[in-house]
Amino acid sequence: MTSRDIILISSLGWDFPWQGHQEIATRLARAGDRVLYVENTGVRTPRSLAVYYCVADSLHLTPYARQLRRSERAVVEACDLVFAQGEELADHRARWNANVHAFPFGVNTEGFAAGARRGAPQNGAGGNGSTYDDYFNAISRPVIGYVGGLHRQSSTSGGGGAIS
User: Fold this and answer.
1) C-alpha distances in angstroms, 47 versus 43, 59, 76?
2) What mean pLDDT comes out for the span 57-83?
3) Count of beta carbons in the 10 Å neighbourhood of residue 85
């Protein structure tokens, strides 16, 4: 897809911390497509290509799973192109649309490298010639990492009840 008009309706503002929404819009634009990034409060213009990007299966987070499934199915069926964060999500949406593609999250290596250069001492942890491994190995323990999203809902039991 190049030289196409793409309207990406996002649940995130452009200035929100960088995530998959902004990354997809940027990569499509770099590939030669004209991308209109519409924030969730923006005004929608006539479409030339409707794209849906499924990043999670949220059915277990709501007591309204049946309604959510019907709504998502209607959106997926109406779209020209569907991306899904992983193969399993893509397989489930492929029942409703023939143009579904897995588009997993990745690392913007240019942005990551720039951030790493800003975060590490100029000469690494141990002086000239040190690597980033040296730098990270010198950090006192324990080190806790988290990859994922935080949601406003949390389960109060195994039965799917949610609280805000």
Assistant:
1) 12, 28, 15
2) 90
3) 17
pLDDT digits (tens, 9 = 90+) for 104-148: 877 666 766 665 555 554 444 444 455 656 666 777 776 666 655
Q: Residue 56, exposed/middle/buried by CB under 10 A (0-12, 13-18, 19+)?
A: middle
Q: What are the backbone angles phi and psi of residue 57, rounded to the nearest 5°?
A: -100, 100
> Three-class SS of residue 163?
strand
As a whole number of angstroms, the distance between CA 92 and CA 90 comes to 5
The yes-or-no verdict on residue 15 having pLDDT over 90 is no
Residues facing 54 on adjacent strands: 84
27 vs 18: CA distance, rounded Å: 13
Residue 75: Cβ within 10 Å count: 16
The two tokens of residue 41 are 């409060």
